[in-house]
Structure formats: structure tokens, C-alpha cells
Write a structure and sequence with these properties.
Layout: H1 2-5, H2 7-15, H3 49-66, E1 76-84, E2 87-96, E3 111-118, E4 122-124, H4 133-138, E5 152-153, H5 162-169, E6 174-175, E7 180-188, E8 198-203, E9 208-210, H6 227-235, E10 241-247, H7 248-254, E11 255-257, H8 264-267, H9 271-279, H10 285-293, E12 297-300, H11 303-311, H12 321-333, H13 343-351, H14 355-360, E13 376-388, E14 391-392, E15 399-401, E16 407-413, H15 435-455
Parallel strand pairs: 4-16, 5-13
Antiparallel strand pairs: 1-2, 2-3, 6-14, 7-8, 7-13, 8-11, 9-10, 10-13, 12-13, 15-16
């Protein structure tokens, strides 16, 4: 907390990382003042997205490589940690055949040799388990109901949890494996990079959220309000999917997509593209591409036709038109006056009081059946695996701990493999805008601690 509230911004700026001035307000909660949710906007977006955050650190590593201080061993798969007299002192595994596939794509696993490397310390930064659905289901928390039979992946296939198990075999303690953060607004990528590739919709508050049978999700499970509360509700519903019902006006203003490739304006650091896609009329090009090509999108001018199209996307037609119509008409009725008892409508009005949301993220209130706002759009939403909130237990120096609470000499862990620090610093929940900071802080902590140990 001290790092986040103080040094973090200036330190990142020194590295060359810049943030967009418009701060997003995700995970609003919708409960009481002391309940779950962000009380203020805190979702900062880096200028350049993920590649923009990584670039300064890559540059420093490459400079160190040029000076002979760093060796990069690509295609070296670690299968075990080595130890001498109880202290971790290296890794061993298999060398994999070269592969020219792009970043994130599944590459070959053809083994062409062995390797073993020794060092004064080993830092594990291999990420979580989101690409391994079997492991996700094995660790699925009972408090969230039954694990979904079908999920899509928000991370590449290599984010498989192997190094967590390998470190555990070497004596490291794994804690809170049931702490997870999976998204409920996943859509299948129409142009996938990895298997079961899903993209998360970062929604504004206006879409009508229905369960698989056409019933509205309960208060306060509105778009962008309570991820785990919504996940639990879905898991206990007996179905793995839900629906957004919205209009063209809503998708133009309120649909943002996760991933650097889905935000070329910000990734390319182009002010011209940014103004053209975020401020000008119409939806951003990546959003329109999903509306046109995505397997989960239905676009119609008529509500009955929309429901029929939505039913064609499921194994059996679960949506009853009269039920969906009842929910849509009831919602629309609340816009007859500038005041309303519907808490989602109240939340929409409240969101527009925040200037950044009013300008870029929240559509002007309107009825779904307003023909001038159309066409109508139905979006089938899947559970999207993403973040691991538990993992290797570490101390304040990022040293991996054994089951007895003592450090395992020579082994460190940082980032998501360590639950973003400590083995689960977020607890059972998290707040959007806090994940990357934990990776940066725990990584810096581990690097400094290892440097101090190696130097003696």
C-alpha cells in the first residue's frame, strides 16, 4: 500500500511508463459504503497497453544482454528445480525444437535435448493456472458453486500452473489455491491466437443482463459491478452462460475489449487513432468486428427475431420470448421519468456524474426498444478464466516459504505465480486496477532481494 500510494507513480514514470488521463471505474460493487467495490475510479490504462508497460524493462534486459550480464534461453522448458543441502541452486529440463509461431500461439513441444543451469538464486515468475482448465476446476472454490462445464481462456495455453507444482515438489508451500478471479463477460475470439481464446468485455452499466433462461440478474449484479458475486450466481444457476441485451448506442459507447490487440489505438500510442475510435461517433473498429464476425453476437431490429437468434446459439432454446419481453419492457418503463426505482437505472444516472464516464464510457439513458437507438444486440457471455489469486507463499522479501513458514533457501517468486505477492495478497476478492501493481512490486522486491543475497 505504501508503494502504491507513494513511490509507484514516480517510479513507473522514471521507467518510461505513461498512463492515460481518463481513469476507469470498474468493479463498482453496488453494496453499502463498507461493502465490496471501488469507492473511486482506479482503473489506469497504460499508454501502449501491455507492450508499453513491458518495453522499458525489455530495453534494460537487452542492454544487460549486450554487456554480457544476461543470457536469454528461449525454448528451454523447466521440469525441475535442483537443490544442494536443502537450498535451491538451479533448474533442469528439456530444450524444445525451434518454433516460429507468434507470441501467445501454441508452439511445438518436440524435445531435442537436455539442459541444467545453476545459480545463486532462482526466481519463479511463470504466471497462474488460467490456461489449464482441468487445474482451474480442481481448485474451484466450493463457495462459488460447481465449476463450469465449459469455459474459455483469457490467457495463453502455456499459463498452465506447471511451475507452481514444480516449486511445490521442491519444498515450496502453496496456499489459497481456491482464490481465483475469472470474468463473467467472456466472448469467443473470432480471430483466435491460442486455444479457446476468449476476450473480456469491459462493459459500461447500461446493458440488460439476463441469465440463460431470460431472467434478469439480481441487484446489484449489473455490468461492471461485482465480478465474483456474478460468478457465484451463474455457477449456482445450472448454466454456464448469460446474455447481454443492448442497443447500437450502448455498444458504441460502453463496450471496451481486453487485450492489446483489441486496442490498437492505445497499443500503437496514436492520439489520432484514439480520438477517432473513442470520441468520434460509432463503435471502435475491434468492437464492430466482433459484432460482425463474433460467434456470440446476434443483431436484429425486432426483439422477437433477436430472441430467436439467441436461442440458435445454444444447444436447446432456453429463452422464452414473453419472459425476455417482460424484462425489457419493465426496464424501459423506468426511463419514462428522470427518476426511477430500478437500481440499475439509478446507477446509470450516477455513473454519468463522473465526467470521464459521461464522455467516453456511459451512453445517454434510453429505452432498449427505442428504434432510433437500434439495432438490438444480444451477446452470449461465457466464463473466462483469467487470474490466480493464490499460489506460492512468499515473505516480504519475495522468498518462497516452506510449509513450516521458513524460507526455502535460494527460491523466490513474484507476480501471479505468488498470488500477486505473498501467496494471495488480495484475499478472496480483488479490485480492478490492482493486479499489475502487485506484479511490479513483487518483481522489484524479488530482484532487489536476490541482488542483495548474491552480493553477500
Amino acid at each position: 500500500m505504501d508503494f502504491a500510494a507513494g513511490e509507484k507513480r514516480s517510479w513507473l514514470r522514471e521507467q518510461g511508463v505513461r498512463l492515460l488521463p481518463m481513469v476507469g471505474w470498474a468493479e463498482r460493487g453496488g453494496y453499502g459504503a463498507i461493502g465490496h467495490g471501488n469507492s473511486v475510479p482506479r482503473f489506469h490504462i497504460a499508454w501502449g497497453t501491455g507492450p508499453g508497460v513491458v518495453a522499458p524493462f525489455v530495453r534494460r534486459v537487452r542492454e544487460a544482454q549486450t554487456r554480457g550480464l544476461v543470457e536469454l534461453r528461449f525454448r528451454h522448458r523447466v521440469d525441475a528445480l535442483t537443490a544442494t543441502n536443502g537450498a535451491v541452486d538451479g533448474v533442469r529440463g528439456r530444450v524444445l525444437a525451434p518454433d516460429g509461431r507468434a507470441r501467445g500461439q501454441s508452439s511445438n513441444r518436440d524435445e531435442i535435448g537436455d539442459f541444467e543451469l545453476n545459480a545463486g538464486a532462482v526466481i519463479v515468475t511463470s504466471g497462474g493456472i488460467g490456461g489449464n482448465h482441468e487445474l482451474v476446476r480442481r481448485n474451484w472454490p466450493k463457495r462459488l458453486g460447481d465449476p463450469p462445464k465449459r469455459m474459455i481462456s483469457g490467457v495463453p495455453q502455456h499459463v498452465d500452473g506447471r511451475m507452481i507444482e514444480i516449486a511445490e515438489d521442491a519444498g515450496a508451500s502453496v496456499i489459497h489455491p481456491d482464490r481465483m478471479w475469472h470474468y463473467t463477460e467472456g466472448i469467443q475470439n473470432w480471430d483466435p491466437i491460442w486455444p479457446m481464446h476468449g476476450i473480456r468485455i469491459l462493459p459500461g452499466p447500461s446493458s440488460l443482463w439476463l441469465d440463460a433462461t431470460g431472467r434478469r440478474l439480481p441487484v446489484p449484479l449489473f455490468p461492471g459491478f461485482d465480478t465474483l458475486g456474478t460468478l457465484e450466481h451463474i455457477a449456482r444457476s445450472g448454466h454456464d452462460h448469460t446474455w447481454f441485451v443492448l442497443t447500437q448506442k450502448i455498444i458504441e459507447k460502453e463496450f471496451a475489449l481486453s487485450g492489446s490487440e483489441q486496442n490498437p489505438d492505445i497499443t500503437d500510442r496514436s492520439i489520432r487513432k484514439l480520438l477517432g475510435s473513442r470520441v468520434a461517433s460509432g463503435a471502435p473498429a475491434p468492437v464492430e468486428a466482433f459484432k460482425k464476425h463474433g460467434a456470440d453476437f446476434v443483431v436484429e431490429r425486432d426483439l422477437r427475431a433477436l430472441v430467436a437468434g439467441m436461442n440458435r446459439l445454444t444447444d436447446e432454446p432456453l429463452l422464452d420470448f414473453e419472459q425476455v419481453e417482460r424484462e425489457v419492457v419493465a426496464r424501459d418503463r423506468e426511463f419514462d421519468n428522470p427518476y426511477a426505482k430500478d437500481l440499475q437505472v439509478t446507477a446509470i444516472h450516477g455513473a454519468r456524474r463522473y465526467l470521464a464516464d459521461r464522455l467516453t464510457r456511459v451512453a445517454a439513458p434510453h429505452k432498449l426498444l427505442d428504434p432510433d437507438a437500434g439495432p438490438l444486440i444480444g451477446v452470449k457471455l461465457h466464463i473466462l478464466t483469467r487470474k490466480t489469486l493464490g499460489g506460492l507463499q512468499t515473505d516480504l522479501q519475495a522468498r518462497a516459504l516452506r510449509a513450516d513458514g521458513e524460507p526455502l533457501p535460494g527460491l523466490y517468486a513474484a507476480g501471479e505465480v505468488a498470488g500477486f505477492g505473498g501467496g494471495g495478497m488480495h484475499g478472496y476478492r480483488a479490485l480492478e486496477g490492482t493486479f499489475l501493481g502487485g506484479c511490479l512490486f513483487s518483481g522489484r522486491t524479488a530482484g532487489r532481494a536476490v541482488a542483495a543475497e548474491v552480493r553477500g
